[in-house]
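Translate structure to sequence.
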């Protein structure tokens, strides 16, 4: 047989084997390999039809986008959390996930805001999910308390002490839960920090307004907690950050407020370095040799060892001085190829190959501001002189593609992050709003590349309200992923929450390539 015929026969045999595998192994994307996790088959990829990260308007309108898109990932199990929508932030302990809501207008109507308690709805608050059976995650409860009812991006959990902490979005409430049994969090304290306007519960009114908590000197937004679980740093974007002593769970205390505020933050494992994502909004400054220009985007590295060892006493005047500045790397959103409204958002520590890095993302979370915001990897091995290792830019974040993406009624902004192993990270997970979940190989942080992605199929049973399409969900057209991402090394499972889809557990398929980590439990 000549070589050409031999190749044709080989292709036919390979095709036949593929068909047999699909028919015998199954091609459903609604179930995976269960507790075993890892790399599964078949891949059942459904590739993005447009640019990298894009859900084109035409595909939204003809219904194709409602099936979701995926490469290198498949669904193991999910829980829609009673079809409530507005799932925006996630933390976790042991086999449990804790998922909170934001933009209450998604559930309660366009007149709602994070500063008004929609307590009349049992759907709003912290959903407790038992994921011990990965194929059938179970909703245990939805807990409501002054901060957890609208914590925006602040919910954080600490494994060492089995605690869950959050501040009220835009307000002053601080809630501390203890979850020795992860299925049964217990509220240990709910206090107010900083200065704000906190009114007692109002009479029942049309629209369900309960109480008002509006921060002034401090407005809750996001948070990071030291690995020992004793200190929390609560950020507030525009005003001041709060340093909180969690030693006594029933009596958490404010150590001090300080400026400049940051959008979000991260910490090193020792709790002695704070990495602030300074949100500059319209930031045209180029930076100063000794620190950030006013209103500039960037990564600020602060020495917080005084807070960690409590050698810095609580401030008697509420406000204290900024912790000592160690290093700063600034950038201008416009000069860095981002939207004029983009600002620094996320800063999370990781190590790779003996060097130390921070993953940093910018954000602008609405439709209509192409090219939105992208991510970067910053080498902080020399923490006094942080340097850019690489930019992570999707095609939807390139200025030359704005004519194609601006019409999509979508939000293609970077947001939060996860790693396969923060102490030796090789895989980077990014939540990207309409861009879904993105997975990049960072074996070489200077040359990262994408290996997988996941756009959840939107949940049509979640109602859409005015303007929600520009932020988190478009009902039956597309869904957004905005949460932190958990990778479980023992099973190879990946945890996310979709804005309308709810809690989802994923796993890699072979089309993600050979560099994905192998589950340690197998």
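Result:
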């Amino acid at each position: 047989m000549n070589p050409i015929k031999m190749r044709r026969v080989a292709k036919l045999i390979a095709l036949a084997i593929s068909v047999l595998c699909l028919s015998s192994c199954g091609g459903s994307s609604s179930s995976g390999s269960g507790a075993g996790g890892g790399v599964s088959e078949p891949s059942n990829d459904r590739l993005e039809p447009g640019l990298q990260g894009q859900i084109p308007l035409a595909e939204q309108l003809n219904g194709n986008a409602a099936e979701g898109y995926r490469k290198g990932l498949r669904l193991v199990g999910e829980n829609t959390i009673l079809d409530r929508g507005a799932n925006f932030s996630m933390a976790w302990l042991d086999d449990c996930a804790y998922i909170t809501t934001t933009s209450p207008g998604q559930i309660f109507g366009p007149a709602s805001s994070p500063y008004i308690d929609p307590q009349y709805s049992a759907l709003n608050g912290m959903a407790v999910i038992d994921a011990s059976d990965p194929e059938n995650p179970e909703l245990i409860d939805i807990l409501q308390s002054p901060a957890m009812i609208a914590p925006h991006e602040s919910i954080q959990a600490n494994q060492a002490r089995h605690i869950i902490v959050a501040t009220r979005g835009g307000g002053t409430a601080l809630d501390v839960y203890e979850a020795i049994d992860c299925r049964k969090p217990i509220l240990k304290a709910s206090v107010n920090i900083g200065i704000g306007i906190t009114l007692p519960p109002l009479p029942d009114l049309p629209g369900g307004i309960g109480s008002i908590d509006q921060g002034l000197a401090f407005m809750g937004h996001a948070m990071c907690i030291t690995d020992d679980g004793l200190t929390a740093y609560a950020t507030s974007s525009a005003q001041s950050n709060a340093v909180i002593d969690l030693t006594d769970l029933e009596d958490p205390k404010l150590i001090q407020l300080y400026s400049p505020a940051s959008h979000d933050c991260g910490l090193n494992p020792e709790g002695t370095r704070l990495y602030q994502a300074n949100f500059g909004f319209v930031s045209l400054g180029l930076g100063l040799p000794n620190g950030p220009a006013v209103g500039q985007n960037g990564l600020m590295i602060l020495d917080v060892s005084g807070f960690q060892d409590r050698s810095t006493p609580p401030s008697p005047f509420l406000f204290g001085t900024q912790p000592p500045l160690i290093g700063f790397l600034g950038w201008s959103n416009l000069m860095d190829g981002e939207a004029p409204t983009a600002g620094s958002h996320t800063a999370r520590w990781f190590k790779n190959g003996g060097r130390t890095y921070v993953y940093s993302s910018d954000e602008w979370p609405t439709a209509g501001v192409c090219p939105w915001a992208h991510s970067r990897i910053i080498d902080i091995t020399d923490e006094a002189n942080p340097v850019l290792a690489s930019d992570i830019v999707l095609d939807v974040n390139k200025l030359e593609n704005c004519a194609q993406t601006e019409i999509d009624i979508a939000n293609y902004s970077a947001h939060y992050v996860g790693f396969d192993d923060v102490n030796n990270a090789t895989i980077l997970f990014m939540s990207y709003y309409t861009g879904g979940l993105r997975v990049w190989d960072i074996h070489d942080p200077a040359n990262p590349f994408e290996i997988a992605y996941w756009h959840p199929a939107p949940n049509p049973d979640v109602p859409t309200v005015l303007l929600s399409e520009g932020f988190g969900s478009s009902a039956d057209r597309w869904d957004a992923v905005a949460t932190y991402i958990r990778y479980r090394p023992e099973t190879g499972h990946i945890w996310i929450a979709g804005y309308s889809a709810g809690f989802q557990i994923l796993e890699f398929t072979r089309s993600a390539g050979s560099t994905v980590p192998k589950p340690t439990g197998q």
